[in-house]
Fold:
Amino acid sequence: SQQGEEDPQALSIQEGENATMNCSYKTSINNLQWYRQNSGRGLVHLILIRSNEREKHSGRLRVTLDTSKKSSSLLITASRAADTASYFCATVSGGSNYKLTFGKGTLLTVNP
Amino acid sequence: NAGVTQTPKFQVLKTGQSMTLQCAQDMNHNSMYWYRQDPGMGLRLIYYSASEGTTDKGEVPNGYNVSRLNKREFSLRLESAAPSQTSVYFCASSASGGAYGSSYEQYFGPGTRLTVT
Structure:
């Protein structure tokens, strides 16, 4: 069963704007990861945030984690057409240190 | 480094045929995984291998078998393909999960697009 649920399912913005995607999950986690998938390609890891962290940055990416609300958000600043992709959150829970459980993804379209 | 490689890239099977999807990684990772991706369903774990010599079922193992041939290679076999197995299959690998609370990113292959008619 899916652990994470991304919101919105699809998002369309103009180049230069910020994009925010949200992920909610059901059970307590060890960490939460965000991945990007370009059309027809495999997934690429973007960022990992542990359960004891609240915010993390990587370049134009900012991830927040609120364990009390069981939610995370991914912010992409100053978006570019090349950011067009599907974005997935994935969680690691309990004793399953090896297994990721993925959400269904947010399709981001950045229009030039 | 090639990372994670998968063969074949595309495959069409008839119902009842069998085939093996191959996966190899050159990053010396302990853990390897097989996922399937269907429209609107995200990725679902079929089988995984936490370390060489071990395999475990994931969320949707029915109709599949796996072999962890060595540390580098992890194959997925469909013994008798069914139309419900039409999907895109991804292999992934990661460093060992290690102690509780530590976990590592997964590296994905380019995928195999399988159609069963």
Q: What stands out?
A: The mean pLDDT of chain B is 91.
